[in-house]
Amino acid sequence: MTEGISPDIKRAYNRVRYEKSREYRRRYYLEHHEERLAYQREYRKAARGEARG
């Protein structure tokens, strides 16, 4: 079925399949998790400061 397809098209297709996969989403989530936590920490700190002031 995939014999007549050029390798770069095959590669693009596999990349799309990979990006839709659970593994990719999990890795993406883990990579951005720290950023999100840091942002939330800063936000809460600021919110607490506002409330106290």
UniProtKB/TrEMBL annotation:
This is Uncharacterized protein. It comes from Parolsenella catena. The lineage of its organism: Bacteria, Bacillati, Actinomycetota, Coriobacteriia, Coriobacteriales.
